Amino acid sequence: MPRRTRCRATVTRPGLPCPFPWRPASRPRRCQKETALFDSLWLWVVFNAILAGLLFFDLVVLMRRDHVVGMREAAWLTVFWTIVGIAPVAYIITAGDGNAGVTYLTAYVAERALSLDNLFVFIIIFGYFGVPARYQPRGLLWGIVMALLARAVFIAAGVAVINAASWVLFILGAFLVYTAYKLAFAGDQEVDPSQNIVLRLYRRVAPVSSEYDGHRFFTRLGGKRVATPMLLLVLVLGTTDVVFAVDSIPTVFGITTDAFLVWSSNAMAVLGMRPLFFLLAGMVKVFRFLQYGLAGILGFIGVKMIVEEAFHDFHLISEKADIFVALGVILVMLAGSVALSLVLPEKGSGADAGESI
Q: Nearest Cα to 270, choosing from 143, 135, 153, 120?
């Protein structure tokens, strides 16, 4: 029986890759339908307009006044943004098919899980800048905006490179496996915000105030316009997220190479980081096994990426079932690491968990 070719070869529009490259050429009609759906210009315009509207809602409505975010508010906002993040599944299933919806959900859950790792570093950054509690939500949101812009560039470049040379998936897969090993066994690495290259360069070329002026980025000092620590905080948060994006974006490419699914799942996951930060920041030391769960997710996606690129017809169970398997594995690893941390807490972590940032 002749070996089936990848679905990419069946697309009739020149240069347009199928968003589901593992599908066989024997199903061209469905592939073309999904390609047309996710390549639609109006879909990109509408989604990004909604994304901009959500950012405006968060900045202008939810944060119309600076205040300290309590646990109850953070919990409700986490639920709200999670529902918002999952909402695209309904449209994707209705307009596309069930496989695409589950693929989006898998990518979203993976990104949301990996964003938990940001908490460790963000807590250190907020502590370094001594950010007053009432200004932390706004500073974090502006950092998220910068992170979205940076990730958009990463995703556009990644899609272009993968479409031009699919063998790059082997490199990305191997990188994820290596990152998983380093995360699980290399031990904790100290993070020093003062060594951030953007922070050091800015301090060399422009004056910076030592005091906050509300949530303003600039203030007047001795008749001169100078930057406040808030501006430096946002710059460090945004550029630090680029480091995390180097791990998280290849992870999503291991789930799907469709540009729209990669961008939408990434954007929605990052959008929900702000309330999740305040919900979990005080308990972050409790989850001592979380890094092993995240390492397992990275390793699983890395191996999955390599195997699917090497053996285009390979299915663990079946084409459709494998998508659910990937989602299940990610959920089990994440929930298992959290549950194990709660069942086997580190001695003395109970007191630390109650501390606020």
A: 143
Residues near 47 by beta carbon (within 8 Å), at least 6 away in sequence: 88, 260, 264
DSSP-derived letter for residue 227 is E
Give the model's pLDDT for residue 48: 92
In the prediction, which pLDDT does 351 show?
43
Q: Which of 78-92, 219-233, 235-249, 325-339 has the lowest mean pLDDT?
A: 235-249
Closest-CA residue to 35 (of 7, 59, 57, 60): 7
Is residue 356 very low, low, confident or very high in pLDDT (cuts 50, 70, 90)? very low
Instruction: Look at phi and psi of residue 4 and say left if phi exceeds 0, alpha if psi is from -120 to 50, else beta.
Output: beta
Give Cα separations from 36 to 22, 28, 40, 42, 44 (angstroms). 17, 12, 6, 11, 12
10: Cα within 13 Å, side-chain hemisphere: 22
pLDDT of residue 137: 82
State the Rg of the chain over Cα: 22
Angle between helices 290-310 and 168-185 (to 10 degrees): 160
**Which two three-digit tokens encode residue 139?**
């500073």
Q: What is the largest CA-CA distance in the chain?
A: 81
- Give CA–CA dist 139/56, Å, rounded: 15
Q: How far apart are CA 282 and CA 82, in angstroms?
A: 20
Residue in the block written with tokens 């580190």: 346
pTM of model > 0.85: no
Residues in the chain: 357
At residue 188, φ and ψ (nearest 5 deg) are -70, 140
Of 123, 125, 131, 141, the residue nearest 212 (C-alpha):
131
In this structure, the strands spanning 218-221 and 224-227 are antiparallel
Contact 355, 307 (CB under 8 A): no
Question: 227 pairs with which residues across the strands?
Answer: 208, 218
Give me the mean pLDDT over the 312-323 stretch: 71
